[in-house]
Design a protein that fits this description.
Elements: H1 3-14, H2 19-24, E1 29-30, E2 41-42, H3 63-67, H4 72-95, H5 131-146, E3 157-161, E4 175-176, H6 180-187, H7 189-196, E5 201-204, E6 208-209, E7 212-213, H8 218-228, E8 234-236, H9 241-247, H10 255-264, H11 278-283, H12 289-305, H13 326-339, E9 341-345, E10 359-363, H14 371-374, H15 387-394, E11 399-403, H16 423-431, E12 435-441, E13 458-459, E14 462-463, H17 470-482, E15 486-491, H18 500-505, E16 508-511, H19 519-527, H20 560-563, E17 581-591, E18 595-604, E19 610-620, E20 631-640, E21 645-653, E22 659-660, E23 666-667, E24 673-678, H21 684-690, E25 695-699
Parallel strand pairs: 3-5, 4-6, 5-8, 10-11, 10-12, 12-15, 15-16
Antiparallel strand pairs: 1-2, 6-7, 9-16, 13-14, 17-18, 18-21, 19-20, 19-24, 22-23, 24-25
Helix pairs in contact: 1-12, 4-5, 5-7, 9-10, 13-19, 15-19, 16-17
Length: 700
């Protein structure tokens, strides 16, 4: 079904509704209209890394972990599986008349906000700090969710539009102030690219941007999204965001006025209950029936595109047995393995001999944690393999002990319930081990969405510090005092510094993110050399004492690898491997008004099969406006056997090698464009850590 056909069918059906019935369809809990044969429909579903909150599904690595693959094709494949499982569930939900929340086909994912500040708790839901990487992976994810058939396989939704990245505790009343340069260079590109590539939904953010609530923003929603980008899909509010318009932003005085200003800004669907007041707004002449009708037609266009009203519903042959099936678990493990980023490997300490009979202690709060595998916005897998579980499976001949050693954040003496002070047990296990794997980090109870929990480390899900929580720091340092051979596995969704003592003592450090239900097996396979690490950092890892700008400041100065002041601890795009890749013969293949194509020969010159995450960065020698140090503009994943060579071409969209002026316009730089091709960004710290430099080519 074409979009035009769906739109005409939507118009025909909506024309049969009364005003009250149309309004009832603009709430996420859309009511049944029995006289028209319309079933109730709940629009709210989640699927950022697996079908969420409604029973068994494959729990893939979280979005920030998938971003570490730098691989659009892999992300597309994962998203295709998510929509397959979504259809499998939906087929049974409809059969058994279950129209509850999280049972529909409208997934409110991906989150394509820019992870501008390492303290933001929801950064784990994003594809990282870079606009190009976020846009590229976002487009691939959306295409996987929506499919390429006659009907939508499922509907994806780019969120949260726009300029949204904390702080969580202030989000309902906060005004994120930004200038046109940062808006169009950093905050909007991923939305523009996903809209123009066909995403069917966009969700507004909680906060205000430059004074207006995002879900009722005349400039963002009407001028940019609808007029400049010609978006004809549906816009949905974040959940409860329309209530914020009059209760927290004080942008209107009444509920009816808030509903009216949102609808007039073409927010079609309300996740919440504020649109119950649309009838009052209509009766007070704050809105017209034509505006109500237009919104209803847009949401029904989506429902027709999903095939809801077809006699033979599309994708109805996808069986329930697809949920977390063997094939999907294999993809899940592969994805988790490719997400892992090896930050340190002193004197090639890793990989370990998987046949070792040595004593291995697995110590730390994420040793046996399932919640740390899941991240947030997750489903429930049919099998979980924690870090300790994975090590037991892979190192079957080793003598393995496991101790939690510490809680995530809170240190206290034991009470009658116990499990407050576990420090000495963790130290004891490490003291008798030949190798200690320190499984440290966080989970969604510490970093996440508006947790409402404040202590000396967390503020409603945001971190107060870039270091480990003190209770884990104490454990880690004590373990380093009693065990020479320490490997740190950091399970979290953001930048964390282990501190000088632990970082310098550890033989190896792995950033595992929130790696999905099989993440522990992926970690163990990497430790044993079953796979070579290939993940790259989608965010900057800062030193704990780095002078990060004020969290409330949305200027990009000093933020991310593009505008950082000083050196990163581990730079964006960085990650070690067990093998080595060489780049040669970088050349310009072709260029035109729209694209620049360059190629490079990449050879595996190491002694192990591996995947290289080739990256292209642009810098400008001269410009009339301020520009990033470097800007990622091309990525390619290349798997090579030992000694194998491949010629890899990068088609670079000129959009990403434009300079953005103070008024937000994209223009050609005044001077030359230098393109850097390699396995990392061309900054000094990456060159030092990896011992090589990118190849470069100048474009006139």
């Amino acid at each position: 079904m074409t979009k035009n056909e769906a739109r005409e069918k939507a118009k025909s059906l909506v024309a049969k509704m009364t005003v009250e019935e149309k309004i009832s369809q603009l709430l996420y809990t859309s009511a049944a209209i029995e006289r028209l044969g319309i079933k109730e429909y709940n629009w709210w579903n989640e699927g950022s890394h697996g079908v969420a909150r409604a029973g068994t599904a494959t729990v893939f690595p979280h979005a920030i972990a998938m971003a570490a693959t730098f691989d659009p094709e892999l992300v597309n494949t994962v998203a295709d599986v998510i929509s397959t499982e979504g259809r499998a569930k939906y087929n049974k939900h409809v059969k058994f008349n279950d129209y509850d929340i999280f049972k529909g086909l409208t997934f409110w994912a991906p989150n394509i906000n820019i992870f501008r500040d390492p303290r933001w708790g929801r950064g784990q839901e994003t594809f990282g700090e870079d606009p190009f990487l976020t846009a590229t992976l976002g487009m691939s994810f959306i295409k996987g969710i929506q499919g390429d058939g006659e009907f939508l396989k499922a509907s994806a939704c780019s969120k949260h539009f726009a300029v949204h990245s904390g702080p969580e505790k202030d989000r309902h009343g906060f005004d994120a102030k930004t200038n046109a340069h940062d808006l169009f260079e950093t905050y909007l590109p991923a939305f523009e690219k996903t809209v123009k590539s066909g995403v069917t939904g966009v969700m507004g953010a909680y906060n205000r941007t430059n004074g207006e609530p995002c879900c009722a923003h005349s400039y963002l929603l009407l001028d940019i999204l609808r007029k400049q980008w010609n978006f004809d899909g549906y816009i949905v509010s974040d959940c409860g965001a329309l209530k914020d318009i009059y209760t927290d932003h004080h942008f209107t005085d009444t509920k009816a006025e808030a509903a009216a200003v949102a609808l007039k800004s073409t927010c079609d669907l309300n996740c919440g209950e504020t649109y119950e007041a649309l009838i009052d707004a209509y009766e007070q002449d704050l809105i017209t029936e034509e505006e109500i009708t237009a919104a209803a037609e847009r949401v029904y266009t989506i429902r027709f595109l999903l095939g809801e009203f077809e006699e033979n519903r599309p994708y109805s042959d996808i069986p329930f047995s697809k949920l977390d099936c063997k094939e999907h678990r294999e993809l899940n493990l592969k994805t988790a393995e490719q997400c892992l980023v090896l930050l340190k490997n002193d004197k090639s300490f890793l990989p370990l001999d998987k046949n070792t009979t040595k004593r291995i202690a697995v110590v730390g709060p994420n040793s046996l944690s399932v919640t740390a595998l899941e991240g947030n916005y997750n489903g429930y897998a049919s099998e979980y393999i924690t870090v300790a579980d994975g090590i037991r499976r892979v190192f079957a001949d080793a003598s393995i002990s496991v101790e939690k050693g510490a809680n995530y954040c809170i240190e206290r003496p034991n009470d009658w319930s116990g499990f407050g002070n576990m420090l000495s047990d963790g130290i004891a296990a490490a003291s008798e081990a030949d190798i200690t794997v320190l499984a440290l980090g966080l989970d969604c109870s510490v970093e996440g969405e508006d947790t409402g929990f404040d202590d000396d480390y967390t503020a409603c899900g945001d971190k107060r510090s870039l270091y480990l929580p003190k209770t884990q720091q104490k454990l880690a340092e004590a373990v380093c005092d009693v065990c020479d051979n320490v490997v740190v596995v950091l399970v979290c969704g953001s930048s964390i510094d282990l501190g000088d003592k632990v970082r310098n003592h550890a033989k190896a450090i792995i950033h595992a993110w929130y790696p999905g239900s099989l993440g522990g097996l992926a970690v163990a396979n990497l430790l044993a050399g079953e796979v070579s690490p290939s993940g790259k950092l989608p965010v900057t890892i800062y030193r704990g004492d780095h002078n990060v700008p004020d969290f409330l400041d949305y200027s990009m100065f000093g933020r991310t690898y593009r505008y950082i002041e000083g050196d990163a601890l581990y730079p964006f795009g960085y990650g070690l491997s067990y093998t080595k890749f060489a780049y040669d013969n970088v050349k310009l293949v072709s260029e035109n008004e729209y694209t620049i194509t360059v190629s490079a020969e990449i050879t595996n010159v190491g002694d192990m099969k591996g995947i290289e995450r080739a990256q292209v960065y642009a810098s400008f020698t001269d410009s009339r406006t301020y520009t990033p140090h470097f800007q990622l503009c091309g990525v390619k994943a290349v798997e090579l056997e030992v000694g194998e060579k491949a010629e890899v071409a990068f088609e670079i969209d000129r959009y990403w090698v434009k300079a953005v002026t103070d008024d937000g316009s994209r223009v050609d730089p005044d001077g030359k464009i230098t393109l850097f091709v390699g396995g990392h960004q061309p900054d000094n710290m990456s060159n030092t850590l990896l011992g090589d430099e990118c190849q470069k080519i100048e474009i006139q």
